[in-house]
Specification:
By secondary structure, the chain is mainly α. About 75% of the residues lie in helices and about 0% in strands.
């Protein structure tokens, strides 16, 4: 059985993952409206991943015999200055999520909950990838500046991303 502190932290993270999905959907819609279908696709896939993360954490709470708590998912921002500032927000948001995940890992160790600590390690590793990917896209956008040809190529590259359920093949 999960301790109350772990159940609360994981439940809050489920909410944060669903907020992340909403945020990335809002960003996807912005890119779609700008005609950047590849960027819209990339962000839409990102939203699907966040939903999968939230569901995975929800299931962990239940598997450990606890009852998750539920909170309202706040509305995301929907206005963005430009694509570069949008991806700066993606990076900032992923850094925030990393802090939250690290907090859960630390709490699990404080509570001597090795099962949750092991469970959350998948997310610790995932956040390294999430931040690196956001940073790479942001660096490219800053490098390209107003070069529409380079933006076109990046958009085309981002259109190739497909959703792969991170939990379908293995049970992290």
């Amino acid at each position: 059985m999960l301790k109350e502190s772990i159940t609360k932290a994981l439940s809050e993270q489920v909410n944060a993952e669903y907020y992340s999905a909403y945020l990335y959907l809002a960003m996807s819609a912005y890119c779609d409206q700008m005609g950047l279908k590849g960027c819209a696709n990339w962000l839409h896939i990102q939203a699907k991943e966040e939903m999968a993360h939230g569901t995975h954490m929800f299931e962990h709470i239940l598997e450990r015999g606890a009852m998750p708590s539920f909170a309202e998912v706040k509305a995301p921002v929907t206005n963005f200055d430009n694509l570069t500032s949008l991806f700066a927000q993606v990076l900032s948001h992923e850094q925030y999520v990393t802090e939250r995940i690290n907090h859960i890992a630390s709490l699990a160790m404080q509570e001597n909950d090795h099962a949750t600590y092991d469970f959350i390690q998948w997310y610790v590793k995932e956040q390294i990838e999430e931040e690196a990917t956001a940073e790479e896209i942001l660096q490219k956008l800053k490098l390209f500046g107003e070069n529409s040809g380079m933006l076109y190529n990046l958009d085309k590259e981002m259109s190739t991303r497909v959703f792969v359920d991170p939990f379908a093949a293995a049970n992290p």
